[in-house]
Amino acid sequence: MVAGLAVLFLILAKPEAGMFFLVFLAPLAPTMAMAGLSLLSLFSLAVKSITTPNFKWKYDGLGFLLLGFIAIYLVAGITSFAMVKSLSIWAIYLAFMAAYFLIINLVRSKKQLNNLLTVFVLSGLLVCLYGIAQYIFGWDTAQAWMDEEMFSDIKMRIYSTLGNPNVLGEYILLVLPVSLGLMWTRKGLLQKLFYAAASAVMLVALILTFSRGCWLGFLVAAAIFVTFAAGKLWGLGLIALPLLPAVLPESIMNRFTSIGDLKDSSTSYRVYIWMGTLAMVRDFWISGIGMGSEAFTEVYPFYSYNGIVAPHSHNLFLQILVESGIGGILVFGLILLLFLKRMMAGYQAGGGKGAPLSTMIVAISAGICGFLVQGMFDNCFYNYRVMLIFWCVMGMAMACFYAAKRIAAQEHRETGTDRA
Question: Which pTM does this prediction carry?
Answer without folding.
Answer: 0.93
